């Protein structure tokens, strides 16, 4: 930069160059990764703790990079979003999740529900509902076995467009989950206008629920509101028995977190499916 001499940026520039270079390389290999079939899904069970049964599972994408090994979505999803690659990648995830449901059903396993994360960029695509419809038809999956997780932030970006897009998805009979609930700094009015089925309490509130009375009050209020509005509620990031017990006390029965299961490779998830009871 031209001010380099004045404000001392030049001290950082080799580092910044290296970072920029790494990003470019990662973006290039991300492009190739789809063609080379380097992505795969893991499945994290969602449990109804009170009822002791399996509600479903969240499909989470991973990248087996040829040189770097396993890369987690926190690293490449933001890059996929900024580069537009999230469109083909998101389509891959949706199709793979539905194909897996079909495979498992054909193998005689119980009809488990899957949650798929949908990025705002995907959801904004005008033909998104048509794509979903096509994938459901191709795989013969029942739309009611599929739910979409959309973050509060991506839902709020363009409320008008969001309502109509959500209603189109609802016509297919799909369930909508608000992901990372409580982190979007938004008005809650959308809960009444949007056709939403489920809210997922963000891990940041669950994390300190036992030590921070404010977080506890927030979770308590979210659960009470969800009950009043007839929305299902699930807590993510449950890691300890104390958190589990407190959540149950507050009336939240559906949970997801390392306390129960980490995201599982397909073989392990299928093993679980063989002897678990679905809710
Ligand atoms: P998310 O949707 O909030 O997914 C939950 C994340 O929390 C997952 O991280 C999961 O492994 C992690 N997690 C679950 N239980 C616990 C726990 O008890 N403790 C802790 N510390 N973490 C827990 P992961 O798989 O690394 O995914 C990170 C984020 O990447 C996801 O956050 C989601 O925003 C995004 N992502 C993952 N897969 C996809 C995808 O297929 N499409 C899109 N658009 N985004 C995805
Ligand atoms: Ca999610
Ligand atoms: Ca989440
Ligand atoms: Ca989260």
Brief write-up:
The chain is about 50% helix and about 20% strand. It is α/β, with parallel strands linked by helices.
What does it look like?
The chain has helices at residues 4-7, 13-35, 73-83, 86-106, 120-123, 128-139, 152-156, 159-171, 190-193, 203-207, 213-228, 241-249, 266-275, and strands at 39-48, 53-65, 69-71, 114-117, 146-151, 175-181, 198-201, 232-236, 254-256. It is an alpha/beta fold and 279 residues long. The protein has an 8-stranded mixed beta barrel with strand order 1-2-4-5-6-7-8-9, surrounded by 4 helices. The termini are far apart. The model is unreliable at 1-5 (pLDDT under 50). Bound molecules: ligand C2E and calcium ion (3 copies). Residues 179-180, 200, 236 line the site of one calcium ion.
